Amino acid sequence: MTESYPSFTPFLLANPFIRNAPALLVERICRHAMATMHHRYRPVFERVAEQEAFALLISPTDLDLQFYLKIDADHPELRPARHIEEETVAAQISGPLPALLELLQGTSDGDALFFSRTLRIEGRTELVVALRNALDGESIDLRSAVAESFGMMGPAARAALGLAEKIYRQLQHDMNRTANALTSPTAKRLLGVEKRASAQAVTLAEIEKTIQRRNRHTRPKPSGAAKDDFALPANP
Amino acid sequence: MELVCPAGTPASLHAAVAAGADVVYCGFRDATNARNFPGLNFSRAELRDAVKHAHKHGVHVYLACNTYPQAGAEEIWHKAVDDAVAIGVDAIILADIGLLRYARDHHPDARLHLSVQASASNEEAIRFYHQEFGVRRVVLPRVLSLDEIRTLNQRIQVETEVFAFGGMCVMAEGRCSLSSYATGESPNMNGVCSPAAHVHYEERGDTTVSRLGNFTINIYDSDEKVGYPTLCKGRFRAMDKSGYLFEEPTSLDVTAMLPELADAGVSALKIEGRQRGKAYISQVVGAFRTSLDKIAEGRRDARSKLSTLSEGQSDTTGAYRRSWQ
Fold this sequence. Notes:
heterodimer; A: alpha+beta; Nonspecific Lipid-transfer Protein, Chain A; 2 domains; 5-stranded mixed sheet; 8 helices; 5 strands; elongated; B: alpha/beta; TIM Barrel; 3-stranded antiparallel sheet; globular
């Protein structure tokens, strides 16, 4: 299965907290999220699991955590994955968490994310395609789902989510600037190396042509040959 | 020119209508249409609601029933035609001559369009479909140049619809057996080219290997964009060189030549991609709506910003401009 490089997103900063969070708490959050999704978007589960129930491994490349997702019309399941589960799931989807969330809400095109290699898929492609199509057929709104799951505290949760999104966007902006500051000197150097390599490739090609022309002129004509144009060069 | 847009789900149809489609085309959830992917397409009830929604917004709906009926199972295709008429779609897109005759005999008032799957690319073929079955529009195969389309339009009595954006197909639409050879299932009979159940991706170090059935279709380096593994877009080795021998994984985009297509007498532009998500539909349909509106105002819009949505993340004007000739 996939061994991906971590994606440079603000979710990377959450890893120290996730690593140290009590396992029971993480499991409970996952269970609660799945119960909310199942309640709000039951047709998705019915449509995907029409033929069979199956499990996927969801691997956000910016989190030190993988998720085991079981798609079942009546008893779906979401929980942190254990190591052995790579062998038992039908497929694995890997990618940065923001991209996975956009896919879930249908705000990004799954094929485009895949073509650009933002997302990677291994295993039974048809199940991933069926899930993608079913999700895309619904209008999933995570903000509303989160707010609803807090019941009476919904408006407060929505406000907290809004604040979290604002902080996320600021962090993303700052991290992009940091990444640019760190990589731009190397990128500039690489660009220079590439330009020099391209110029040298052109020079090399011209030298090779010259050598071939010289070989044609200096090589003795084979006896009986009408024209030496058809003879192979001595050192092709 | 009419903007004909794809929808694989009711949500996509809503997205297409909101983004400015003149027409949305879709299919039933079975082998009667050429995008028979898992979890995709419309039930009868969903199509009924979709037609209601589209008509409310002044948008037409076409039903694609464009695969070839399997011997002994024609009833499924006949029922699709009957149901489409009963639901009130504005046109049915057909390819098979037996099915065209069925539609003509049982629903003489239905508007029939000829699918690209019929591969009608010359005057005589198009005249035949028009005279025999009353076909009122033909979707032209992606083999014709702009000049050929112009000439054709001057000589035929029916409307023409051309592909404007999306995945390309090798130049034998409706007659291709490559998928069938590799997987036992074909777009012509089963409604799906290179079915997902036969597709496998494997991450091998920094490379991604794509397979279709038992065939390795491509091995992508870490800096290359990935494509869907169809045999026609595979990278093969021949005469000590490896490359895309049939077709590169690239997408059609005619944004830069919309005025020329209008001038050539084209009636409608088709966007490919019923298998794509609603985000793709919103962006592509929105971009073409803007371009067409600009042209209608006498402004030219040559820039396209859609390459990130394309397979291979690159685009071409295909056979419309044959730069290789």
